[in-house]
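P.,

For your records, the input lines for the assembly:
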Amino acid sequence: MRATTIHAARDIRLTDVATPSIGSPTEAVIKVTAGCICGSDLWPYRGENPITAGSTIGHECVGVVEEVGSAVTSFKAGDFVIVPFCHCDNTCAHCRAGITSACENVGFTESGQAEYALVTQAEGTMFKAEAPSDDDMLKSLLSLSDVMPTGWHAAVAAGVRPGGTAVVVGDGAVGLCGVLAASVMGAEKVVVMSRHEPRQQIAKAFGATHVIAERGKEGEEAIREITAGVGADAVLECVGTDQSMQTAFAVARPGSRVGFVGVPHGVELPVRRMFQKNVGLFGGVAPVRAYLDELLPKVLDGSINPGLVFDSVRPLDEVADGYRDMDERRAVKVMLLP
Amino acid sequence: MRATTIHAARDIRLTDVATPSIGSPTEAVIKVTAGCICGSDLWPYRGENPITAGSTIGHECVGVVEEVGSAVTSFKAGDFVIVPFCHCDNTCAHCRAGITSACENVGFTESGQAEYALVTQAEGTMFKAEAPSDDDMLKSLLSLSDVMPTGWHAAVAAGVRPGGTAVVVGDGAVGLCGVLAASVMGAEKVVVMSRHEPRQQIAKAFGATHVIAERGKEGEEAIREITAGVGADAVLECVGTDQSMQTAFAVARPGSRVGFVGVPHGVELPVRRMFQKNVGLFGGVAPVRAYLDELLPKVLDGSINPGLVFDSVRPLDEVADGYRDMDERRAVKVMLLP
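Structure tokens returned:
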């Protein structure tokens, strides 16, 4: 099959690789309807994560079941499914506690930017949906494989509640979905830190009430003003750099929590400040599967439209251009059609 | 007045210093009935915190109001009061949110191991109680100035709920109060990590169901067994060293929180593990005042007896011996009588 592979920093190719096949009774093979590029794919793309040359890349997709293993009973060939990027059996103690991303049998989609993908724990992971009738619905369903539940997780971890102020650090697709989540959860003020006009527009469509273009001390000062000097009631850290984490802690009010979903890179947590101000940290790899019961109905009834984060659609052949667009911030998020 | 002063590592003296007097309308002077030595006093005692030679030390006390400033209307000379170690106005936004330890006008008791102590925000800080009729009640009331609410804060921050397993890392007086808190909050299994027999006994009296004497990998393995491989539902970190923090995160189940109240010293938080396992961190300086409405009645009706942590009582003159006893672990916690 045709699949996206990474060979070195900034070296993304479409390559012929073996089509996945069932190797264990719990697996399923999905014919990918749409995949996409994740902000976290840019870490290896930029050479900031180790690269195994020639390995497939891409962990988000939706598609049609091609084949299932013998232990998979709730799905059959032809079903349209959302594929949470982290696979789970949905029966172990961690899954039952809602942390499906820490499943004892956790696995990950490894060829979401390809023609076919393997789901290691198909029964517990996949989520059936009606095949989308248009591109907008396709985008929103695709967002449910990672980016929307990840933004949602940031808001849950930060403890967003009705009323009060939520600050979102990061205007990538996850941050924007964090804005949407905080808004849906009823935050009165939703502040996004963003200096990119197209992203600001999406943030506003998602319910942002304030846009802060300043960074560092100036950005912190702007948030102090919005919160009358008290600090934010909930902070969503959606980047993963040390700078974004420091900003998150600087603007959080005492007693609040930073919800973090940006894969941490070079982050040194300000433990003394956390202690002195009683600001907590919670979050991590989003338990995507656990949120779909709640999020899919919201997509279907139109109360949320997370697909808006996809401002670019390309055929799979152009995947390398898609990476370039995202790396250079010409696109927020690129949907790929095999 | 006679007051405890620190001059260098392991150099604790009883010295004559100026008796505190009212310098601002919000203040009160307390004649100390009983003070005590805190585990955190051992950091400077051991030379692990900077020392200003000759400065007073000691932040926990109960006593009788000697004099109040003109802005203090709810207290008068002769009242017996608990003095939370961190002073607060109890009116600012942080106090109203329950984080009195981050009060905009925060202050600290600076001569709790002395004849008199100054409370900078008397109206918002002090808590009236009937003068204790015996030493046992005196001990329990004294514990409410810091150690018991701090253990309670660890349990609140860790999210202890009825059922499940709470693990307490640390068998100092705060850790023991954490055991008591977790037990009162209804944890089904309360595990204390302790290898000191006298402390194990207090822990059991406070409701510990399991005592783990092993440390490091062996201690973690013991907790894995108790929790059927899943990990603890809540972990109370009551030490503040890097080792205790690593242990806390190693035994916490995915989706749980480590509640930390040990002043962090040389701690490097395992941010990757926190992210991958979705284990949060919450806590800090305990908002003592905010918990007294709940804790004092429990002391008065005998449902908790936190005074048990005081296994040594000395006249103030013997304060240096008290420090030595605690440093060498011959005493859990020393009450001092001026």
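Two observations worth noting. Residues 43 and 49 of chain B are 6 Å apart (CA to CA). The mean pLDDT of chain B is 97.

Regards
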